[in-house]
């Protein structure tokens, strides 16, 4: 199904520059950071690629360059009103991550390694309380200015300021400051010895201090930047755009980094155009009509029943499922704990019991999905069995405030396949609701004050048609418990605004997968973030136990410590029933024109959309899909 992904455009652009991109846990044990300058760093163990490597294994170094790639909405965004992806207000255009680069970049076939991009060497202090980057003298912005340490400092100071989205402030909060050592050298200083912080610093998007500067030297406030073209050092620049519905990027002919080992075989299209359609139906029909080149299909029904037609039959359009080893992230019905109705864990557990996943998978999803049972499903980050001694060391201090079940096995999601049944699950849910003070009388489930149990599920209009049959099953089951659910869809801009203000009861969110958990978990579950509009803590979690576990997670010095903290976090979150977990797919479903090609070797950990943009190419002499007219 089509899902609204947590993070918005700001967190999406940031994620593109971060190094943590996988979950293969074949790490060596952590070693003391090096005090000498190196070409690459790893959070644990050593980088996969040796010094002097020529290209990543999953690219075609001889891929032809040229042509136009035309794409549709990469998510539920249907229009844009700004080019600044780092602020809270408004909706940023898709693809802006191609304009910005960072000091380092990761690879798609290893975990938490960072290779020099803008930086040509990296020096981590012996006490790990700072990292110093030397900027490649060739690096320059799209306006021709060299990238300097002052620009890097300006970028950090801006992203940590109140003019940036709260998620940005939270993500970089452990970086105390950036110090300009000389015009080509920048040092980041940290609050603590945290192995993730050099990667966070290296993955920070860098932009020119001239972005937003008027000819007279005055400056437009960062949070007021709208259609002022960003000044970044990335491979693409904005070519043209129209009506907040189409945008075309052009490969910068003067791009400075095209010969770097981390860039060989990438950025193969001369132009990349995004066309935004009003809803999923229009988007699908446009693809079948040949209006754009590739579709990452998130709707199982479409993949089986609707991604068909004469162009598929002729071979002009190709369907393929690509295996991937990403963690799944969490996707589910998210409850807002700021609402009194959701504050009792027994109520939240009852709502989990009412979802009949087996029926949905069989009748609506063509048995293509698996049920989520962890915030880190499909990875070694998911806990198994009883807590380890390391996990208990983190959990025991909070035993009095935690559900005793946290100290047992992870919870198992309810099933309705025989001998299980939805009726049995609802009987269990009814008892939990009664224990929480909710009883059925006068035609509704009511609390001691006589108030009926009712809440709203918020969605955006573009996806409502996909979710209607799912919501019909779920709301019908809740109705049998006496719970009244109102399903409301609004346009995307209002939907995002309400989420940023925490003005919702329940909604469906996909939390992006992470392979090496770190600072983003603080933004999602930290108590402080719960009170910051626009943060990732949509749930409104405020827990001293979770805060303590998050501190241990971000300060982990070894892989074993990281796993213990992540397992402990997952146990507390799953037993808290903050979301009704939904489902995931073990493959990327991609339909594409036969004029496109991709490397023979697939990466391990990747998003299908970014993979297409960064490593695919157009076959020579192949005509592109019809681009938007301006």
Automatic annotation (TrEMBL):
According to the record, the signal peptide region is: 1-37
Span of domain Solute-binding protein family = 116-511
The answer to whether keyword Signal applies is yes
Which PROSITE patterns has this protein been placed in? TAT
**GO CC term (a single one):** outer membrane-bounded periplasmic space
Q: Which GO terms describe its molecular function?
A: peptide transmembrane transporter activity
Pfam (any one): SBP_bac_5
**Highest taxon in the source lineage:** Bacteria
Q: Which GO terms describe its biological process?
A: microcin transport; peptide transport
Which InterPro entries has this protein been placed in?
Peptide/Ni-bd, SBP_5, SBP_5_dom, TAT_signal
CDD domains, A to Z: MbnE-like
Mind listing the UniProt keywords for this protein, alphabetically?
Answer: Signal
Q: Which PANTHER family match?
A: ABC TRANSPORTER PERIPLASMIC BINDING PROTEIN (PTHR30290:SF64), PERIPLASMIC BINDING COMPONENT OF ABC TRANSPORTER (PTHR30290)
Q: What is this protein called?
A: ABC transporter substrate-binding protein
Natural source organism = Paraburkholderia acidisoli
């Amino acid at each position: 199904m089509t899902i609204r992904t947590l993070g918005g455009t700001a967190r999406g652009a940031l994620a593109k520059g971060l190094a943590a991109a996988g979950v293969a846990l074949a790490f060596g044990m952590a070693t003391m950071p090096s005090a000498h300058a190196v070409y690459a760093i790893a959070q644990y163990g050593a980088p996969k690629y040796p010094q002097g490597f020529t290209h990543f294994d999953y690219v075609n170094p001889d891929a032809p360059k040229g042509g136009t790639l035309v794409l549709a909405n990469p998510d539920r965004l249907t229009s844009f009103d700004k080019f600044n992806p780092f602020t809270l207000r408004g909706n940023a255009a898709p693809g802006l991550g191609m304009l910005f680069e960072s000091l380092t970049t990761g690879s798609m076939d290893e975990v938490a390694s960072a290779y020099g991009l803008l930086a040509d060497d990296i020096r981590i202090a012996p006490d790990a309380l700072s990292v110093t980057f030397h900027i490649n003298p060739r690096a320059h912005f799209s306006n021709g200015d060299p990238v300097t340490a002052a620009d890097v400092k300006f970028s950090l100071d801006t992203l940590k300021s109140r003019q940036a989205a709260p998620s940005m402030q939270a993500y970089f909060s452990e970086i105390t400051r950036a110090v300009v050592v000389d015009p080509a050298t920048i040092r980041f200083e940290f609050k603590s010895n945290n192995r993730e912080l050099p990667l966070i610093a290296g993955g920070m998007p860098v932009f020119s201090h001239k972005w937003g500067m008027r000819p007279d030297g005055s400056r437009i406030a960062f949070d007021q930047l709208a259609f002022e073209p960003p000044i970044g050092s990335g491979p693409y620049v904005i070519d043209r755009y129209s009506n907040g519905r189409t945008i075309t990027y052009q490969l910068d002919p003067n791009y400075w980094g095209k010969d770097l080992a981390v860039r060989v075989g990438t950025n193969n299209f001369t132009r990349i155009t995004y066309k935004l359609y009003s809803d999923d139906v229009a988007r699908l029909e446009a693809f079948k009509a040949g209006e754009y080149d590739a579709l990452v299909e998130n709707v199982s029904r479409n993949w089986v029943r609707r991604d068909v037609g004469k162009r598929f039959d002729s071979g002009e359009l190709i369907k393929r499922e690509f295996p991937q080893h990403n963690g799944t992230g969490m996707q589910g019905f998210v409850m807002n704990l700021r609402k009194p109705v959701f504050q009792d864990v027994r109520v939240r557990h009852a709502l989990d019991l009412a979802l009949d996943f087996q029926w949905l998978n069989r009748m609506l999803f063509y048995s293509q999905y698996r049920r989520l049972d962890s915030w880190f499903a499909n990875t070694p980050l998911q806990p198994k069995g009883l807590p380890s001694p390391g996990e208990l060391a983190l959990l025991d201090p909070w035993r009095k405030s935690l559900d005793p079940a946290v100290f047992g096995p992870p919870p198992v999601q309810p099933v309705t396949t025989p001998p299980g049944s939805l009726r049995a699950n609802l009987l269990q849910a009814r008892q939990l609701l009664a224990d929480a003070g909710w009883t059925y009388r006068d035609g509704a489930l009511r609390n001691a004050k006589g108030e009926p149990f009712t809440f709203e599920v918020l969605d955006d209009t573009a996806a409502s048609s996909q979710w209607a049959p799912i919501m019909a099953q779920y709301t019908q089951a809740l109705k049998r418990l006496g719970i009244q659910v109102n399903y409301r869809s609004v346009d995307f801009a209002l939907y995002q605004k309400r989420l940023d203000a925490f003005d919702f009861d329940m909604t469906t969110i996909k939390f992006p997968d992470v392979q090496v958990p770190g600072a983003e978990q603080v933004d999602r579950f930290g108590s402080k973030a719960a009170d910051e509009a626009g943060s990732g803590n949509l749930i409104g979690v405020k827990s001293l136990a979770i805060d303590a576990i998050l501190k241990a997670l971000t300060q982990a010095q070894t892989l074993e410590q990281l796993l213990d903290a992540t397992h402990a976090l997952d146990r507390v979150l799953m037993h808290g029933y903050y979301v009704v977990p939904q489902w995931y797919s073990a493959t990327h479903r991609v339909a594409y024109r036969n004029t496109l090609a991709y490397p023979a070797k697939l990466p391990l950990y990747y998003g299908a959309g970014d993979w297409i943009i960064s490593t695919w190419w157009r076959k020579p002499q192949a005509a592109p899909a019809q681009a938007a007219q301006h």
